[in-house]
Amino acid sequence: MLYDITRTITSRLAVWPGDAAYVAAPQMSLAAGESVNLTSLTFSPHTGAHADAYYHYESDGAHPAGMPLEAYIGPARVISVTKRDGALVPADFAPGALANVERLLIHSHVSDLPDDQFAETFPYLSEALIAYLAAQGTRLIGLDSPSVDAFDSKDLPCHHALKAHKMVNLECLYLRGVPDGDYELVALPLKLDAACGSPVRAILRELG
Length: 208
Hints:
Elements: E1 2-4, E2 23-28, E3 38-42, E4 50-52, E5 73-80, E6 86-87, E7 103-107, E8 123-124, H1 127-135, E9 140-143, H2 157-164, E10 168-171, E11 181-186, E12 197-199, E13 203-206
Parallel strand pairs: 5-7, 6-8, 7-9, 9-10
Antiparallel strand pairs: 1-13, 2-3, 4-10, 4-12, 5-11, 11-13
């Protein structure tokens, strides 16, 4: 069984305040007698489920085309948390829940919000949690929250900590209805140059 853990990108989909909303503009139309329907798209690379590129927060960081593809595909564990706001630390997870997890996907109340509602209150990562996971070889951390740092953070310590540990992240996943457990994750970023992130079509496949 497959779980699609991405929200549909539409003009109604909430984006980070001040970021570019999704616009699909027709350039050619079958209804107008032209040979094809052709659209141009305008939207932020952080629209919906997306992968941050290191360039998003470090000027010498990789663009999406240079991010490590192998990090975005492979075994993953979905774990739900009850914390609705604030930094997540190892103690917020059940004993043993984080053991041997290559890719961690954190499911919070944010997945229950409607597509057009932006969550300004959400759980986010901590440097302690990132260091704990990095020490056991975790390669990716994904959240349904819109950021791995607090909404009002300017220095983005968790973004920088992820890069320092050679880890990657996904944000704005849609984990509603996905049971906690182990899966195969596929969430490849587009091969974009000169961009700060990339939308992904993230899916989970049941194991066995």
